[in-house]
Write a structure and sequence with these properties.
Elements lengths: L3 H39 L4 E16 L5 E15 L11 H5 L3 H4 L8 H30 L1 E4 L3 E4 L4 H5 L6 E5 L2 E2 L3 H9 L6 E7 L2 E7 L2 E6 L5 E6 L2 E3 L6 E4 L3 H28 L10 H12 L3 H19 L7 H14 L5 H30 L1
Antiparallel strand pairs: 1-2, 3-12, 4-11, 5-6, 5-7, 7-8, 9-10
């Protein structure tokens, strides 16, 4: 039998994982669904349920417009159910809509124009990108931005940079003509160009020197022991504090940083997905709830700002995932609406039902794959 002390240790250990995970996921889900809800209301659509999580309701209330706001038992997503939806995936219940009075039908989701339905569906992923911008900007404004000069302190032996002729003391000025202001700019540029030659201009002894380097993928380990594959060239910055500093940002500067950071994460995620499809990256880096909980717990030890930045990163990922043209996801609905706009009428109920079944199967396969990666990583 487990001793009281042992049970307490297990409970406290579980909380270390659960609390940061719920904090991050709740923020992302709430704002995603809030995007659907607000634009849907603006388009005159009646919302029946706004749920964070699935399954049995834990707590909730009904507002004056008849929307049931609730927190459900399974915190792995959420949904807004509009009038005329058959289920939480917004599959239209056409029989129910046909049976409605004209007044009820005016607030039903399936009865609205294709433009209003598309705007309501697209608002969820868009809200994820807006949330990421706000978080990145807010954290940068409050905490400042750590920046370092793009000066090479060390060139790793047998690295692409060593083969290209880099030397300690070189200051990187540009990469393929793009100005490099900080060492982080260099890391960003390299991070999406594995096996792609990059023409860099460096300042050496007061004179410009052009060098061509080709990044290669390497497995690296972060401070928490997590392994990941990333393109590297083998340049090391000076970490003694002489070249790194905290840069304060104005509100406008922080907003600009939030937009650029969100754009970088978006493009890098899209590049990664393409590299997985083409076999240039391993799919074992795709994680699910267990890995998110693990990383959330690790990042929370750094501080609230780091945890919020993780939420911004995941918000972008959730936004992009929902835009995939898979029925059951927002992107699948938008695909159906595109066909409807082109044809002038919706796809048949039979075609949509087949599409939703295929979409459900694909989503379930993705979830199983992510869980498998999570468990394999733990083992």
């Amino acid at each position: 039998m487990e001793s009281p002390v042992g049970l307490a240790q297990i409970w406290s250990g579980g909380l270390i994982y659960i609390v940061p995970f719920l904090f991050v996921l709740t923020i992302i889900v709430f704002f995603h669904e809030l995007g659907h809800f607000l634009v849907g209301r603006w388009c005159g659509i009646k919302a029946l349920v706004f749920s964070v999580g699935f399954g049995p309701e834990l707590i909730g209330f009904t507002d004056r417009r008849g929307t049931r706001w609730k927190l459900a038992a399974v915190p792995l997503g959420g949904y807004v159910k509009f009038l005329g939806d058959e289920n939480a995936a917004s599959v239209p219940d056409r029989a129910a809509v046909d049976a409605m009075s004209a007044d009820e039908r005016s607030g039903a989701f399936p009865a609205k124009s294709v433009g209003r339905r598309a705007a309501t569906v697209a608002a969820g992923p868009i809200a994820n990108f807006i949330l990421a911008i706000v978080i990145f900007a807010g954290v940068a404004y409050v905490e400042g931005r750590v920046v370092g000069d793009p000066v090479v302190a060390e060139v790793r032996a047998d690295s692409p940079a060593a083969a290209a002729g880099f030397q300690a003391g070189d200051k990187v000025l540009s990469a393929d003509g793009e100005t490099i202001r900080y060492f982080s700019d260099l890391q960003r540029y390299v991070s999406s160009r594995a096996d792609t030659p990059i023409l860099m201009t460096v300042e050496r002894n007061g004179a410009p020197v052009e060098l061509t380097v080709t990044p290669r993928n390497e497995v690296q380990t972060d401070g928490f022991g997590n392994e990941f594959t990333v393109p590297v060239v083998g340049l090391v910055a000076n970490n003694d504090g002489s070249s790194f500093r905290v840069e304060s940002l104005s509100p406008l500067g922080a907003l600009s940083y939030g937009v650029s950071q969100t754009w970088f994460v978006t493009t890098r995620t899209v590049d990664f997905m393409g590299e997985v499809i083409t076999g240039r990256q391993s799919a074992d880096q795709i994680g699910g709830p267990i890995r998110i909980a693990q990383v959330s717990s690790q990042v929370s030890t750094i501080g609230l700002g780091a945890l919020l930045n993780l939420a911004a990163l995941l918000s972008v990922s959730i936004g992009l995932l929902n835009l995939l043209p898979i029925p059951m996801l927002d992107g699948g609905h938008l695909l159906f609406y595109a066909f409807e706009a082109i044809r002038g009428r919706p796809l048949s109920e039979q075609v949509q039902e087949i599409g939703f079944r295929i979409g459900l199967a694909l989503v379930m396969l993705l979830m199983v794959f992510a869980f498998w990666n999570d468990i394999s990583g733990l083992v």
